[in-house]
């Protein structure tokens, strides 16, 4: 009986591995799939070049000439004669367009430089204000400390300065309370 149970378990195990292998084979895909991707990539690159040609970014014929192996001079002459000649007005227009692109790029560069300069000035201004505020705070703290540390000849603290700072503190609290009550009502 133990042998019978063992056989069933083994058969079940074989079935599971077979099932796993079968699903794995389905995931591999077809051999032509990679080729299709390559074709799609080439086609998309071609479309991109066409779009750039329409915009006027890249001269596709010149690009293809560079990619092709060297042809004889007679072939080049026949191609140049068959190709339509560009009128001088069109050449001038293209040069003007390129110049405007250059001026536009220069304008954008100047604009970026100006914003960068303004940010730098603002940063230095904030830094300077912060340093001044910190300096004022330190001097005020130092003066306060020196006044509060003053002692009489017998070693007792000078109460005049203590009372003065307590009075300032109370006035400040009163001022804050009156401002809070006026703003809330």
Report on this model:
The protein has 185 residues and is mainly alpha-helical. It has a domain at 110-175. It is built from six helices and no strands. The protein starts with a helix and ends with a helix. The model has no long low-confidence stretch (mean pLDDT 77).
Radius of gyration from CA coordinates? 43 Å
Shape: elongated
Tell me the helix content: over 70%
> Spans with pLDDT under 50 lasting ≥5 residues?
none
Number of helices: 6
Helix/strand-derived category reads mainly alpha
* SS elements, strand count: 0
InterPro entries: Fyv7/TAP26 (IPR013730)
Protein name: Thyroid transcription factor 1-associated protein 26
Write the layout of secondary structure elements.
Elements: H1 2-28, H2 32-55, H3 60-67, H4 73-82, H5 88-149, H6 159-184
